[in-house]
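User: I'm putting together a teaching handout on how multi-component assemblies are represented. Below are the sequence lines for each component of a complex, exactly as they appear in our records. Could you produce the 3D structure of the whole assembly as structure tokens, so the students can see both representations side by side? Please keep the chain order the same as the input.
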Amino acid sequence: MSNYVIFADSACDIKPSVLAEWGVKTASLTFRFDGEEKEYSNNDMDTKVFYDKMRAGGTAKTSAINVERFAIEFENVLLEGNDVLYLGFSSGLSTTYNSARLAAERLREKHPERKIITIDTLSASAGFGMIVYLAVKEKEKGATIEQAATLAEGLKMRLCHWFTVDDLVYLKRGGRISPAVAFVGGVLGIKPVLHMDNEGHLINMFKVRGRKTAVASLADKYSELAENAEAGPVFISHADCIKDVEELADILKKKHGVEVEIVADVGPVIGAHSGPGTLALFFVGKER
Amino acid sequence: MAKNEKKKASKQTGIKYLGGLLLSKMAMGGAALLRSNADEVNKLNVFPVPDGDTGDNMRMTIESGIAAIENLDTDDLAEVMRVLSHGMLLGARGNSGVILSQFFAGTAKGFEGVDKADPTVLGAALELGVKQAYTSVMTPTEGTILTVARESVEYAVKSITPKSTIRSFFADLVGEMHASLDRTPEILAVLKEAGVVDSGGAGLFYIMDGFNRVLNGEEVADNGVASSTLAKPSALNTSFGPDSKMVFGYCTEFLLQLQRAKTNIDKFDVEKLKKFLAGVGDSIVAFKTDSIVKVHVHTFTPEKVLAHCREFGEFITLKIENMSVQHTSSLNEEESSEKNEKSSSGPAKKYGIVAVCNGQGIEELYHELGTDEVVQGGQTQNPSTNDFLDAFSRVNAEHIFVFPNNGNIFMAAQQAAEIYKDALVHVLPSKNIGTGYVAISSADFENPDADAIVEEMKNAMKRVTAGYVSPSIRDAEINGIHINKGDTIGIIEKEIVISEPYRTTAAFRLAEKLLDDPNKFMLSVFCGKDSNEEEQAELNACLCESFPSAEIYFINGGQDIYPYIFVAE
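Assistant: Of course. Below is the structure of the complete assembly, with chains in the same order as your input.
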């Protein structure tokens, strides 16, 4: 049985040090502020600095990982004698996954002896991170690449993403939203609650009055949908709003006795679209 | 001459029956007497805030009835009362106006099939009127117009003897009405505390006293502003044709761009303009935003209004409608559906929203929320039942949600909802522009179940607590709080909770009281036209410092009376 490497990308919002611990390799999407030349990856800029820039009116554009980049990264792994299991950022939000798929096709011809499996997780941020995390655990338990892939494939339609943003303007600007709920723009105090659907698209589900209500309604969704509310796992990611993370974690603990396993920063490549104040909750349910 | 008058008077003393023509004359006397005393009734306000308008509301309500019978030439009592009360129902404004119109409508039912009434029939009809007035209110309160109507009718009926005449009946009725009115402070503590009698009861007294005076051959002096034009009565069901008489005047609306060449824009005095408009019309709305003045007036002489206004600028838009036409088509059922066909090119949408607003800022906010029709009005200018009917007819929807945004407008909206047949109308009990705003923005209008939406909005309204900042117009001692004239008072729901010499302090303290509730974490501040940006900034800074975890939103409401309305949730 040959060995394999789990590969992800920077849209999973898991810290590089943690990914290294898990033995996961990644490639990075990039971003650039309007009117600036310099291109960054998530690790090049502190999230606080990034969101302060956004709050000050900065607009960031993101770039997907291209085929060439994946081809180089994947081939390095193959050349070391390992197979590749790539878990990728939702194709509903980025062309990154497609780049990986094309790179994989090319490399399969060049290295027919090696396995390259790519999975479109249809997930984002720490929800995507949770799929990576659970696949790593499976691998640690001795799962083959096929078994780990099957797990990830089976998990992705049950990986619930529920989140709220401070202002829909960012999602609208990036064209990253489908209006399931007719949303009144600019109404002060109204907070949208969104989720990610089975196609990996962001859907506006309902609106509430006030941030506090929005935070509480994320917890309500957990109570309603979590497969095993007492056991978790629970991940939360946030765009510079740690107080709300604490509040949400507190509610979950009080209601279900469950601890949040990972609190992640929403990195710039996601945050450029969702904006400062994004608060997202991830867990495994029976369905999304 | 003297002989003649004496003969006339004695003839009236002996009046055994009340007929239609006499009732018409009496009603006109009632309207005239109330008109002369409307200001006094306005001032009978429980709170020392400048928002009393009961007198105007009742005056406009009865005037609407008078306009309806003006051209009615019949002595049939039932017919005159039917037309009179129907006109009043449509013109009803404010809760007292609605109750008054219901009192007349109930009485009209008692007159059905009666061409002239003796005291016994009259008494029985008035009893029906009292009954209907009581049922028109969800929770009848004693010590109000209801009590005054009930006690006086009870007394007059009890006093009927075989010798009774219409005149003796009215003498008993009005005499007891006055006594009953004087007793209202004994029944309703808030009246006693404020040192006033009930304003609605007073309005009813003036009307009935006017009836009585006509009956006694007195000329009722009319020192008020004659204004039968706002009334949109039901008497005329014909279209406006070559032989029609101009009865209702013109609804005149325009945006006036003030011109530097013609006037000093910054110093342009809207109040002065309003005074001019009051001389040539009524139903006046006039406000200035930057260099544009919006005007709405009902007048017989729009040319005068236009000429006067052009002295200050030029029109951006201008609309003049013959209200007889407007009126007839909205009342005549066939024509009404025809009109709807015109306005409803395409299928009706599921939900529509009608809201009462006053102030450009708040109007824009409501439109952003998806409001279809705004009915102009507010605390000191209560729209009539008919204003609501007009608004409903312009909305092409299966369900219409109505936000009266004022406790005193709710009943007129409710009355319109009952009359209107082309949509299911749901009136939400929003007490101010803020709670209405919260309710609309809480609702999910994708929900196919209208009742569920109503429920959702009602729950949202229950969740909120409203606070009002208002200047005080007189000294008072209420709830143990000493109020000096000129102080700023803070009101939570219906209770005065603070009084401060400085407005900013009053506003801050009121907000503090609202946010001290551990269940409240969000405060929407609707800034009125009398507030200013510096004060708002100061208030915001103080609140953010004191309540770091609260969400505080400042919204430009542009409302009058209250520089600030707070909605805490």
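A couple of points students might notice: Chain A has a mean pLDDT of 90. Chain A has two domains: 4-29+64-156, 159-284.
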